[in-house]
Amino acid sequence: MWPFGEEWLYEAMLGSYIPFLDVLRSVSCCQDKSERLSLSCKPPISVTIGVTPILLDQLDDDYMRRGFIKWTQARIKRAEEDRKRFKLTGDEAKERLAGAYCDEYRQALTAFCNDYSGDIVSALAEFERQGLVEIITSAATHGYLPLLNEDTSIRAQLAVGCEIHDERFGRPPRGIWLPECAYRPGLEEYLEVLGLEYFFVDRHAIEGGAPIGISSAGDPREVRATNAVFEEEMRGTTYKPYLVNRSNVVCMGRNERVTTQVWSGWLGYPGDGLYREFHRKDDVTGLQYWRVTGREVDLGRKEVYDREEAASRAKEHAAHFVGLVHELVSDWNETTGEHGLIVAPYDTELFGHWWYEGVLWLSETLKGFLGGSAVAVCSAGEFLNIHPPLETVKLPESSWGRGGKHEVWLNDETAWMWDMIHAAEARIKRLAALSPGTRDTDLLELLKVQALREFLLLTSSDWPFLVTEKQAEDYGARRFREHAERFDKLMDYAEAILDEGDSKVSEDEIIGYLSYVRELDDPFPNLQFSALGRQYPESPEREETQQD
Hints:
By secondary structure, the protein is mainly alpha-helical.
């Protein structure tokens, strides 16, 4: 629970995921109306959304559904208490805002329980059937693939990710969001074997230049300072999709202008002084009643938030964004005579959670493209159906992180984690290499599956990221060590069973520990240990990099 754990997901559900479903529903209604009023054959709006399998598993859990309802009810109560408190103190502005929060939270809870039947995942699937959404997958637990040593580890992360997606949505994914946009040469071969058709990279991987990702989107002086890392010859453009190396897999690069415009707190929309301040919260209830005011203004001096002014600014920014995209597409077409691709991907939790007005901005932006003839808003797969790539690109190792490669996840403070991960990789690979035989009892199979489950959780990119960025550093390190300890003990038991001469461990002890761990960690209920042993092509030789 607080400060890390369930509440973070509940906040995302309330602030981002349910409002995002509402946006899709609203756009669907506007689109239907527009098509009835117009005789023109305009392209429909469709968007791509990636759902990481571990998040998919959490959203699809009855415990989390019940927890979200209770948590939201408690939040409504807090808003009601604030409204009464501010009325007593004569603070009319905050009283109105608390009342608006009451209404907003009640509407979200009603939508969750009634409109979406308590099932965000099924609601997304329904929007996909309607053609509004194309859902793509990711690695099972968002593992940082380029730094894994063993092919078996990469295979398991990718295969489990695809299997969970297929199992839940009833079809294999066409595309994948590689965790942290992290790529190294050869990954495309594994994607191709799994039937994945496309993935995304940061701009610098295609064009050269400084990365524009999350860790570089702050102070523009820091962004400029990283330019020296990528003094490379231009290789391509983000306005086109490319086949990667000798594969049939396509990569698409994030557009720098639209990424910075929406994501950056320094240069983009979210830093506007009228928008709600994320970091200042009420001392009593934890709700947010202040606006950004100014980037350099201390939290204690923030001014009271005004919803109407912020909503008006969000609509202005949506109109600006629509104009910006038209300008970029028009300039590209006039220069080259070709169709231009604008890849504009953002973390879903930016909208509503981090940037409170972002949901309204997203809704107004999508509606702003309805009925237009110059720009089509379509999913990545739909674009590739219409404009398949004709050119090939050779990509370097890259990520969206600071420096453009791996330093956010591998550095002096996290090297110990990778030592443990690589040791775990070698150990589970040896176990997977053993041919199944008469010793593969039901108990041994359960141990192997749970060991794989812990291994997948251990290799999540979240843990080194939290340590590096000093965001819940102790929590990230603790979670990592816990999964490592459980993995090692499960492997000890599995190896003891395989060693016929070892009689030190009783079956009751093994069953007791296995039950204990299953209570703690039980994502992917249909996980199979054979995910480690799938047949893939041999790994290509890895190119030396500065990080290496």
